[in-house]
Amino acid sequence: MSDADTDAMTEAVAELIAILDLERLEVDLFRGQNPKTGWRRVFGGQVVSQALVAAARTVPADRPAHSLHAYFLLPGDPRVPIVYEVERLRDGQSFTTRRVKAIQNGRAIFATTVSFQIREEGFTHQPAMPDVAGPDGLPGGPELAANAQLPDTIAAYFARPRPILLRPVDWERYRNDGPRAPVFNVWLKAAADLPDDEALHQAVMAYASDMTLLDVSLIPHRRSVFDPQVQAASLDHALWFHRPFRADSWMLYAQDSPAATGARGFARGQIFDRAGNLIASVAQEGLIRPRLD
């Protein structure tokens, strides 16, 4: 990776941190800005992460988030700032619950409920991390974009500077050259070091968790969300944080899609740190409607 590529990605991380630093308008009212990307709609992961930040700003720092359940209601307009309205549902001895509504032009575009918990010890178990190649040596970013075997739309996606580094283990799936199981493994992390702020690391993971998940439900159909013959959009998103982690260290996002029906694809993911600890789980259903025109 060239110095110019590294600088561009560092700037992308700085921009992500900036858009996650919400402006407080009132006690439980916040405003988030959108990055200048030229996208036609706001990226879903951005809204999830900003809403998580808004909720966290109303909770003591010693109560990290442990789960988030969200619905995408309307496409977000990247030209308009997003207002986040936080409702305090519960302040218990162990758990704190917040509901967040994202608003543009007087209409709700997104809603989520976030639960926070004091740190506690208890029973522990987890699945083993998939036995896949590590991130070192795998192509990503401009290296992957330069692969002549990839469609132009996929190459353009990986060539663009972004705040999250992606190194797919199963990058061959993008060639769509034959039937494949709906399984996808990708290493990811923030493209530059992050401050020592647990809420920020959780928000960055929330942002990254929406980047590749829906696309897994299209793998057995030899399609992707970049296919102009597919109308794709996230419908809901659930995220569980299991233990502390750093989003600027490599994490394996192991994803699969057990079902697709009714123009909807369901996908789920497990996120492991490099040592094999399960640090988060994700589930999502999205629209994957074939375009008939």
TrEMBL record:
It is an enzyme of class 3 (hydrolase). Residues 41-117 form the Acyl-CoA thioesterase-like N-terminal HotDog domain. Residues 181-287 form the Acyl-CoA thioesterase 2 C-terminal domain. Coiled coil: none annotated. Belongs to the C/M/P thioester hydrolase family. PANTHER family: ACYL-COA THIOESTERASE, ACYL-COENZYME A THIOESTERASE 8. The keyword ATP-binding does not apply. This is Acyl-CoA thioesterase-2. Keywords: Hydrolase. GO terms for molecular function: hydrolase activity. NCBIfam families: tesB (TIGR00189). Its EC number is 3.1.2.-. The keyword Hydrolase applies. It comes from Methylobacterium aerolatum.
